[in-house]
Automatic annotation (TrEMBL):
Keyword vocabulary terms for this entry: Coiled coil, Endoplasmic reticulum, Membrane, Signal, Transmembrane, Transmembrane helix
Cellular compartment(s): Endoplasmic reticulum membrane
Similarity section: Belongs to the OST1 family.
Name of the protein this chain belongs to: Dolichyl-diphosphooligosaccharide--protein glycosyltransferase subunit 1
Alphabetical list of Pfam families matching this protein: Ribophorin_I (PF04597)
Superkingdom: Eukaryota
Topological relation to the membrane, as annotated: Single-pass type I membrane protein
Pathway in which this enzyme or protein is active: Protein modification; protein glycosylation
Gene source species: Anisodus acutangulus
Subunit structure: Component of the oligosaccharyltransferase (OST) complex.
Upper taxonomic lineage: Eukaryota, Viridiplantae, Streptophyta, Embryophyta, Tracheophyta
One GO-annotated biological process of the protein: protein N-linked glycosylation via asparagine
Signal peptide range in chain numbering: 1-25
Length: 614
């Protein structure tokens, strides 16, 4: 609805313009052929014009007007002169184009001036070819579709070429992606054949002629739009150019509504996902290497690389099919040989590399190209064959001291036509190459010297000093504590064996084996008790262990009580088994003992942890 209102207002505007604006009568377009290509999301227009000077004064420029909506959607504009037809047709290099505000012309139009290669004298003619590319010119209609629907687009334009000059003869052809059309405007001399609609020829049209046409057609071409693409080109004079591209991608086609069925999509992707896209192909340079494709989650394995002597193709597949309105973010990266892209001229080095996106099917809302030069680069200049916003940054990397200069180039509304070569010129001294290696060599050298000095220097404290003696005494205290911990842990292990013998008794009923286990445990505990006495005497006599001795003494007492309770429990159980007592009777007799054993065991473990921390 918004698009319809816009074009109705535009139609009214051009009617008023045609009545109000004066014509540039000295220049006449004797023949104009316009071709509009709608086979992708980018509308590409090629206008071939033959212009003649019918006035007396020489003419050096040709004016191109665009409506407000077209000026916003205009992504690319180039004008050339042409000679010949068909296969013999040749084109010159692009002519200078600039924005102007001509007097006496409608100010609401955006005007571009094409500088002619030479002035046109009276009666002379010149063949021009004007190529333009527009984004957002094709609008999905309806704006929302389900998974099973096809995508329909609406295209609105004038059948007549917008020009301030009179046109003797002109024609228009509109090429569609496929011969499926819902509707199209039918004017005089309109012909629809295959996937092409032709309007004209129309003769003797005055300046600013306008005739609205609309085409509603089927197109399931991918509407891949990178809302932001950041390309980082890092130069290393050690032989590599590293490219890293960060994409924030969206399908800008008709938005998907309703539920998505993965099963139906996999079974019939051409019917249940016709408006989506699943693959994108990046055309990389032929000697690209170390290629990767990943996102925030990690590496994405659904990619393939094909290559030959002329190119390297990287086919990437997002983690899910991209329906209208769906988004994804990912990063691709690769390396290139430095010698293929870095050259010397007039005492400077210059990088010669492509500017835009390597994917032909992607339109970019905001393209940021960052060229990271080696540290020490100076006298930097940039040449880009189209207008861009330029700024500078500094980036620090490993072993950098002053940082690396970064040239930042920004371009909005970028299309595949912007994937042209640009140059970055700078000066760089070969001595700067040795800076980082010398830093590494110096760092390791001083490290080894420090190590040699450390190994040969006697840094020990005097053995007669109080601090050294105190350290020795404290080491002896720690050794004694470790030995006491070891004895306590062995005692607890013997306790566990006593408990295990009781479990074996309940399973086998062998009382004699159980008594033998108790006797063996009793002997081992007595031996450990003998080993413990000299350690306790040492701690008691050491001033440094005065604050620790109370905890150790408590630990020994608790363990001693635990031994006694276990022996009582063991004796009670074996005696009960000899008297043929029942299991419940045995449990009742040892219940209070077992409760105390559990509490003591916990206290012993806690005291061991405290001593271990000390």
């Amino acid at each position: 609805m918004t698009t319809t209102i816009r074009f109705n207002l535009l139609f009214l505007f051009f009617v008023l313009v045609a009545q109000w604006s004066p014509a540039l009568s000295d220049l006449v377009i004797s023949r104009l052929d316009r071709k509009i290509d709608l086979t992708s999301q980018v509308m590409r227009v090629t206008a071939t014009l033959k212009v003649e000077n019918s006035g007396n004064d020489p003419i050096s420029e040709f004016l191109l007007p665009f409506g407000d909506h077209q000026a916003k959607e205009l992504a690319f504009l180039v004008a050339t002169t042409s000679e010949g037809k068909g296969k013999t047709k040749t084109s010159s290099s692009s002519l200078p184009v600039k924005v102007v505000n001509p007097e006496g012309m409608p100010p609401s139009l955006t005007w571009y001036s094409v500088s002619l290669p030479k002035e046109l004298a009276k009666g002379q003619s010149l063949n021009l070819e004007v190529r333009t590319a527009f984004t957002n010119a094709l609008q999905p209609f309806p704006e929302k579709i389900t998974q099973a629907d096809i995508q329909l687009l609406v295209f609105r334009e004038s059948a007549y070429y917008l020009s301030p000059y009179a046109v003797n003869v002109q024609s228009l052809s509109v090429k569609l992606p496929e011969p499926k059309v819902e509707s199209y405007t039918k004017l005089e001399n309109t012909k629809f054949s295959g996937s092409e609609i032709k309007y004209g020829p129309y003769e003797n049209l005055p300046p600013f002629s306008f005739s609205h046409i609309a085409v509603h057609f089927v197109s399931n071409k991918p509407f891949a739009v990178a809302q932001e693409l950041v390309r980082e080109i890092e130069i290393s004079h050690w032989g590599n150019v590293q490219i890293t591209e960060h994409y924030n991608l969206v399908n800008a086609g008709a938005k998907s509504s309703g539920e998505f069925s993965r099963l139906e999509y996999q079974a019939r992707p051409h019917l249940r996902g016709a408006s989506s896209f699943r693959h994108l192909v990046a055309k990389l340079p032929p000697r690209a290497h170390s290629i990767y494709y990943r996102d925030e989650i990690g590496n994405i394995s659904t990619s393939n690389v094909y290559g030959d002597l002329s190119k390297t193709l990287l086919e990437i597949e997002p983690r899910y099919p991209m329906f209208g309105g769906w988004r994804t973010s990912f990063t691709i990266g690769y390396g290139l040989p430095l010698k293929d892209y870095l050259f010397r001229a007039e005492g400077k080095r210059f990088l010669n590399i492509s500017f835009g996106c390597p994917m032909d099917d992607v339109v970019i809302d905001n393209l940021v190209v960052k060229v990271i030069l080696p540290e020490g680069s100076k006298d930097i200049s940039v040449y880009v064959p189209f207008p861009v916003k330029e700024s500078r940054e500094t980036r620090f990397s490993h072993l950098d001291m002053i940082g690396r200069p970064v040239v930042v180039l920004e371009k909005t509304n970028a299309v595949p036509e912007h994937n042209q070569y640009f140059q970055v010129y700078y000066r760089f001294s070969n001595l700067s190459l040795l800076r980082e290696p010398m830093m590494l060599v110096s760092g390791f050298f001083f490290l080894f010297v420090a190590y040699i000095i450390y190994m040969h220097a006697d840094l020990t404290i005097s053995k007669s000093s109080p601090s050294y003696l105190a350290k020795l005494q404290w080491d002896e205290v720690q050794t004694a504590l470790q030995q006491i911990q070891s004895i306590m842990n062995r005692c607890l292990g013997i306790h566990d064996k006593l408990e295990a013998s009781l479990r074996d008794l309940s399973r086998t009923g062998d009382v004699q084996a159980c008594k033998a286990a108790r006797k063996s445990a009793d002997n081992m505990l007595k031996e450990l008790s003998k080993d413990l006495k000299p350690l306790l005497s040492f701690l008691q006599s050491s001033p440094l262990a005065a604050s620790l001795y109370s905890k150790v003494e408590e630990l020994v007492a608790k363990e001693k009580e635990l031994q006694e309770k276990l022996i009582v429990k063991h004796t009670t159980v074996t005696d009960s088994y000899e008297k043929k007592s029942g299991g419940r009777d045995i449990e009742n007799r040892i219940a209070s003992i077992q409760q105390r054993i559990t509490a003591l065991r916990q206290e012993v473990d806690d005291l061991l942890e405290i001593i271990d921390e000390i």
